[in-house]
Amino acid sequence: MEILIMLIPFFVFLIIGVPIAFSLILSTSFFLLITGSKPLIVLTQQMYTASDSFPLMAIPFFVLAGNLMNRAQLTGRLIELANVLVGRLTGGLGQVSVVASMFLAAIIGSATATTAAVGGMMVPAMREKGYGAAFSGAVAAAGGILGPIIPPSVVFIVAGSLFGVSVGALFMAGIVPGLLIGFGFMLVVYFTSKKRNYPRYTGKLDAKKLLYIFLNATLALMMPIIIMGGILTGVFTATEAGAVAGVYALLVGILVYRSLSLKDLYLTLVESGITSAIILLLIAASNPFGWVLSVHQLPQKVAQLMAAITSDQMVTMLLITIFLLIMGMFLETAANILIVGPILFPIANSFGIDPVYFIAYMCMVLILGMITPPMAVNLFVAAPIAGVSFEKLAAEIWPFLGVGFFVVILLAIWPEIVLFLPRILGLVS
């Protein structure tokens, strides 16, 4: 019960609107001062220990690379390519929005950034062609969750660093589930558009224009290939891949696309620095919080409680999934990983669940929370873009959530969907 001295203030701070990182620091400080179990200096020591990690250096590099490519106006090029590929399908612009999100996911790696980038261009275009405003926003919000699933992913970097699991293996683990979710979203767009008689693209494209559009987007699409190729062939680590991605994005934006001005570069560096600082502060703040939970054996007690309820692995995964979905509704994904991950990871180990599979599965369930009401971050991002209320957007998101839940069930039943690529590439045994 002593641990409640820390947990209750933590949730109180969250409720009154204190940022998550400061809620973690304040509640841990409060616990240490009240109990006197350890000196307060332990807080800073644990924060430093969490930050002193080579893999975490990948985070600012990947954030910078994604922001540079976004500032270089590659979104429009990728949307043009997506339009060529799927624009003639039923619900053409909706299909383009989903495919563009899949492309950008392989470059930006952030759910909210993908939602904002694709939604900013596609939602106005969809509304102009007669698509419902709420549906247009829902498509952008749903597509955004592909950002942290399809590699590279900042979420996977955070999780891999926290649990000592190969980031490369986690990157590969996200590809098949990400594509399944993306294709599922396309089916939702197809059937909804067919039912509501939404238009599709009917214009003609000659071979010359097709080639131009493809070549125009090729350099943007090369970045994830370079990143994953370098990691898998051992040319560079995941951290070094982030630096390579940053340099590549800078060269493409300045020398090839010539769409990055000095002002753009300055704004990108500032934006990337702020975003990276927020993520790294959150990681540092979560370590003393998790350390206190570990010292008081909360993970072991939760594991014992679950073992008392059931000894069946599938039932345990069901309980974990329900818990993760609830947590994902209220807290940002990286924060959830840092807070609940250290509690759930030992439970998965006790059942002999593969670490790569469990971490990837945990991340994907939490990411679904970003479009799950009542506290769906992506819906809050998409609502002002679509010019509709949160409630109207939430009413349109349920079919997309259904796809996400269906894929999660598949992953729980057949772990090989997650482990297929890492296994054939020799990244897991």
Keywords:
mainly alpha
**SS-based class:** mainly alpha
**Bulk shape:** globular
Give the number of domains.
1
Distance between the termini: 40 Å
* E-strand count: 0
Strand content: under 5%
- Identify low-pLDDT runs: none
- The whole-angstrom Rg is 22 Å
Describe the structure.
This protein is mostly helical and 429 residues long. The chain has one domain. Helix content is 78%, strand content 0%. The chain has 20 helices and no strands. It has helices at residues 4-15, 20-35, 41-51, 58-71, 74-86, 92-105, 111-128, 133-144, 154-163, 167-196, 207-233, 238-256, 262-295, 298-309, 313-330, 333-350, 355-368, 377-386, 390-413, 416-424. Helix 6 packs parallel to helix 8 (133-144). The chain is globular. The two termini are 40 Å apart.
Question: What's the quick description here?
Answer:
The protein has helices spanning 4-15, 20-35, 41-51, 58-71, 74-86, 92-105, 111-128, 133-144, 154-163, 167-196, 207-233, 238-256, 262-295, 298-309, 313-330, 333-350, 355-368, 377-386, 390-413, 416-424. By secondary structure, the protein is an all-alpha fold. The longest helix has 34 residues, at 262-295.
